[in-house]
Design goal:
Number of helices: 13
Shape: elongated
CATH topology of the largest domain: Aminopeptidase
Distance between the termini: 68 Å
Largest sheet: 6 strands, antiparallel
Order of helices and strands: HHHEHEEHEHHEEEEHEEHHHEEEHEHEEE
CATH superfamily of the largest domain: Gcn5-related N-acetyltransferase (GNAT)
CATH architecture of the largest domain: 3-Layer(aba) Sandwich
Helix content: 25-40%
Structural class: alpha+beta
Number of strands: 17
Amino acid sequence: MTDMTGVKTSTKKPARHHHWRRDLVELAALFTAVAVADSIANMIVHGPEGPVLLIASAVALAATAGFHTWWARRHSHAPPPTPTPADPTTTATAVEPAASATAASSAASPGEPRETSLWRMRTTVKDEPGSLAALCTVLAGLRVDILTLQTHPLGDGTVDEFLLRSPADVQARELSRQIASVGARDTWLERADTHDLVDAPTRVLGLATRTALDAAELPLALRQLLGRCTIHSLPATTLTGRPTGQTAPVEGVLEGTVMRLRDPSGGAITVERPYLPFTPTEFARARALVELDARLGPRMPRSQDVLTLPEGNEITVRRAGPDDIEAALAMHERCSERTLNLRYHGPVGDADRYLNHLLSPRYGRTLAVQTASGRLVALGHLLWDGDETEVALIVEDAWQRRGIGSELLARLVALAGEADCGSVYAVTQASNTGMVAAMRGLELPLDYQIEEGTLVVTARLNGRPEPVRPPAYGQQTDRG
């Protein structure tokens, strides 16, 4: 017979040997018990203390039975003794290194809650048998759980990317030192959060879906795919139409901590990550996202919100794109020189040149405000600027001081929060009291920097108690 573990077991029972001496001893014990019982019975029946002795025997028997019942109830649920390593009934089972690390962590303090921390760790190990097992053994010794593991093969080794849950008292320096002791190199650690618990295929599919729905999502998708990095979209031409020379081959270029990809809208996308070289696997994933963006072409969500201003006029807030250039140029014609100068910080004649850049989804997101007649009266821009994010507003003179700027700014900051931006900044002039008031109206921590009349106001989004929502000063409906 073979059991479920594949080990052959025998069903043949060992032979039992009977001895005549054991039978003789049992027979003598039986006769002795009968003789003792007969003597006790004669003593009780014919003796003067027979009834007293009988009652005492009954009481002693009842007390013994009660004690036995109490003892059995107290010790019947006791856990079985823990087998020692020398116990012959204990068997060893081979497990995966990651599972053994988790088991070791759980066994360290059974049943006791403990504070833990999440870490993202990236390290390079030798491409030879036992390297990963040695690394997992070290993690198990520190009571660290391995939640996820990704491998990036290289020519001279393998880059392993972990999501770890460790006891709160385990420090990054100790973790790095222990990992280095088994031959791992180029170790990189940073704190993680619960959003990182999503497995890699699910995260990549989600980023691809976001990119497919909105062309402005490509830079954000690349940043979330590759972790902490700086992304620059470099146009193929300047504002005056001259070639910039910024381009990249169709297959892209990977050079250590920098990758260059061809921008489907022209120019190049440069991704930089200091101190942490990109792997071929990461490069292939980034290139696949860019290729998806190129195949789908220009696209933008068409949802819009209709709001009612305090005086009763209805306005529509929607996403804007390259198709709105003519309407934006017409709005510039209706704006005063001061309004254009406060927005573009330069010669009024250059204002029109910025529109192709500002309305391109590659460099950010733009919200437009139009009246019931379809006239464009305001634009709000959220611009990706490497690691930072800029907000900018322009409202036609006739529609200023009606809350439109505050409405646009609140929505742009909400979009920045959805994109996991830590802060947004606005560049304006110290005399632009309207923009300063709108920034203060966000009720977020603000930093001010003034240099030669230029004011930079930065709003920190991290640590706010709840997401920023647009102020509801009128009826709002969604028309998808």
